[in-house]
Amino acid sequence: MQERRSNLDRSQETRGALLAAARTLFFEKGYAATGTPEVVERAGVTRGALYHHFKDKQALFQAVVESEASQIAKEIEAKSLNAETPMDALLHGAKAYFHAMQSPGRVRLMLIEGPAVLGPDEMRRIDLQTGGRELRCGIRDALGTDTPSAEVDAYADLISAMFDRAALACDTKAGTKTYEGVIATLLSTLVRENASNRTSSKALSAC
Known about the structure:
Arc Repressor Mutant, subunit A; Tetracycline Repressor, domain 2; 10 helices; transcription; transcription cis-regulatory region binding; HTH-type_TetR-like_transc_reg; DNA-binding transcription factor activity; Homeodomain-like_sf
């Protein structure tokens, strides 16, 4: 039993070393300029170990993207947990997203190379399992739990695209405060207008 645990520990350590090395290289050099021999050398493992854990470089890249997406989602969740209202949770989450994306190399990895290497459908799948799922929950809470799922999905797709476009812009400009302020205004307006429309609809229905 102890030997099996030790083997499992070693396997997990090897996989972790490969992911850490690949993350650093993908961040520094990008996908195309990173070769698997560099990853192996930096991780301090054999090529056989690399291909034991990952089918090829693209599979390794996907694992790094999934890990980063999960980490970003955790950072957003941590900042949103203690929000007093659903609207505050959305605003805290937006700010946390911008902060998370300021990590050097993340914008290129997640918003440029990720879609180019893995394709938009795979990136959407990863998003829906991490931050996208949390965003949909936040939108539903802010707009009302009776909001149709199709409407929540549409809002989430548009808001997510807005966040990503802002992150790309902030990556080439100094500071994020302007974008954070504009997005806060847009989100607040969305929730306020949605609430107003629902109130008007109920009033008309009662007539």
